[in-house]
């Protein structure tokens, strides 16, 4: 085991940390609480600065304009970018586009790459991933999938109802999971342009956290015609590809969430070292020291699980169990840390004078999206009991 951060990654990490400090965190004060998102003009200005600095889409190979990092290097860099909730979009490595880039580069044809992936990498368009459906459809349990694509001649006719499709408002293309001819075994991903006839973005769902540039949307598909050449991968490959997408995408969530948890704890440390109560700084009270100890250790444990999963994926090993462990533990560490940081900062923590209240609302989704904690725990436990996974 080698815990040393490679020199070149350390250099990039320092530069990105400085960039975030100088150019991104100062923008947070312009966050529009009414609309639950950043003004897009400011995002675009900051994106231009990132491009000029050479940090754009940092996770991609150099040949595609990225930094050529391996997955461990990506862990280190994304955990810096995650320090600000507005930074991942500014660096073009936010969900869902970052996961969609990975999926498209694995499964898209040259023509599909030309149409969607290359402009996505350049930041010229956005995409969204539509899997979840309202009850009685697929959510925690993908076997409940209802959306269906019927093969008619050389086309597929898509009908269905999706929701929680992050970024769909204003996206140019959607990746839609659907059964084929009613067969669950034939579940497939389809690339659907958002100007397709019969597609409707019903609404952006009102929710407790940020909306990002394209919200979290409810969508309907009524007899949407999808030509054969807009099938992503092959018929029946939907679930295999979704595993290819969701595994690394869960990990990149963990990397960004680590950054947010670290920053929350640093904000609390700053307050605790300044503010005096009962004749001592808050940080001098042992009860507070234990809070810092618990949070710092939980963050570090989660990050180590994330690094181990990244290392396994890099080696081509099956990292599903470790990724579930990381997703569960990092999301819980994130929520607990922000809650503790608010407690340590008292009334100020609860106010919008500090960003913790926004972090708190944003972070709550981490324990639900990309598989609720309970589902990951079920999978981890089952794998252990059935000897599918060993220490
Ligand atoms: C902010 C946000 C963004 C999202 N973005 C996307 C996106 O871009 N694309 C997309 O397709 N989806 C997206 N989702 C949807 C997300 O993946 C689902 O919400 C998640 O998979 C859970 O499905 P569900 O909401 O239908 O919950 P349900 O399936 O209704 O489950 C509800 C609860 O039941 C419990 N539960 C479920 N199964 C078990 C079990 N086996 N044992 C014990 N308890 C259990 C859990 O506590 C779970 O939270 C997003 C969700 C959020 C909140």
Could you characterize the architecture of this molecule?
The mean pLDDT is 97. The strands form two sheets. Strands 1, 2, 3, 4, 5, 6, 7 and 8 form an eight-stranded mixed sheet that branches. Strands 9-10 form a two-stranded antiparallel sheet. The longest helix has 37 residues. The chain is built from eleven helices and ten strands. It folds into three domains: 116 residues, Butyryl-Coa Dehydrogenase, subunit A, domain 1 (Orthogonal Bundle), CATH 1.10.540; 106 residues, Butyryl-CoA Dehydrogenase, subunit A, domain 2 (Beta Barrel); 147 residues, Butyryl-CoA Dehydrogenase, subunit A, domain 3, CATH 1.20.140. Helix 7 runs parallel beside helix 9. It is 48% helix and 16% strand. The protein is of the alpha+beta class and 391 residues long. The chain binds flavin-adenine dinucleotide. The site of flavin-adenine dinucleotide has 21 residues, from strand 1, strand 3 and helix 11. This is Carnitine metabolism acyl-CoA dehydrogenase. Homodimer. It comes from Leptospira ryugenii.
Determine and state the CATH class of the largest domain: Mainly Alpha
| Tally of helical segments | 11
Q: How is the main sheet built?
A: 8 strands, mixed
Tell me the series of helices and strands, N- to C-terminal: HHHHHHEEEEEEEEHEEHHHH
Show unreliable segments.
Answer: none
The appropriate CATH architecture of the largest domain is Up-down Bundle
Radius of gyration: 21 Å
CATH T-level topology of the largest domain: Butyryl-CoA Dehydrogenase, subunit A, domain 3
Fourth-level CATH superfamily of the largest domain = Butyryl-CoA Dehydrogenase, subunit A, domain 3
What compounds sit in this structure? flavin-adenine dinucleotide
Question: Approximately how much beta-strand content do the residues carry?
Answer: 15-25%
Question: How many E strands?
Answer: 10
Helical percentage: 40-55%
Could you tell me how far the N terminus lies from the C terminus, measured between alpha carbons in angstroms? 16 Å
């Amino acid at each position: 085991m080698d815990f040393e951060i490679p020199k070149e990654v350390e250099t990039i990490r320092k530069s990105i940390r400085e960039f975030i400090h100088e150019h991104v965190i100062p923008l947070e004060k312009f966050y529009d609480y009414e609309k639950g998102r950043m003004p897009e003009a400011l995002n675009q200005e900051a994106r231009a600065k990132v491009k000029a600095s050479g940090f754009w889409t940092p996770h991609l190979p150099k040949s595609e304009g990225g930094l050529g990092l391996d997955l461990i290097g990506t862990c280190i860099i994304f955990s810096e970018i995650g320090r600000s909730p507005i930074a991942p979009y500014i660096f073009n490595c936010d969900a869902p586009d970052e996961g969609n880039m990975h999926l498209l580069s694995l499964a898209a044809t040259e023509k599909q790459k030309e149409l969607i992936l290359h402009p996505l990498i350049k930041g010229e368009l956005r995409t969204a991933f539509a899997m979840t459906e309202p009850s009685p459809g697929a959510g925690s349990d993908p076997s409940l999938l209802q959306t269906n694509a019927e093969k008619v001649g050389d086309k597929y006719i898509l009908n269905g109802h999706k929701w929680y499709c992050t970024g769909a408002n204003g996206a140019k293309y959607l990746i839609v999971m659907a059964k084929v001819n009613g067969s669950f075994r034939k579940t497939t991903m389809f690339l659907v342009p958002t100007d397709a006839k019969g597609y409707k973005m019903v609404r952006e769902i009102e929710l407790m956290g940020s909306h990002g540039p394209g919200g979290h949307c409810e969508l309907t598909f009524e007899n949407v015609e999808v030509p054969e050449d807009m099938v992503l991968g092959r018929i029946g490959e939907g679930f295999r590809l979704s595993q290819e997408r969701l595994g690394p995408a869960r990990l990149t969530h963990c990397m960004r969430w680590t950054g947010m948890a670290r920053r929350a704890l640093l904000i609390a440390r700053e307050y605790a070292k300044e503010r005096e109560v009962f004749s001592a700084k808050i940080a001098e009270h042992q009860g507070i020291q234990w809070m810092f100890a618990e949070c710092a250790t939980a963050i570090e444990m989660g990050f180590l699980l994330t690094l181990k999963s990244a290392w396994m994926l890099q080696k081509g090993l099956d990292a599903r169990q470790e990724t579930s462990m990381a997703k569960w533990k990092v999301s819980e560490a994130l929520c607990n840390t922000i809650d503790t940081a608010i407690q340590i900062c008292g009334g100020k923590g609860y106010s919008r004078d500090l960003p913790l209240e926004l972090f708190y609302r944003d972070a709550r989704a981490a324990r639900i999206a990309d598989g609720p904690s309970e589902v990951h725990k079920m999978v981890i436990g089952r794998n252990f009991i059935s000897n599918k996974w060993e220490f």
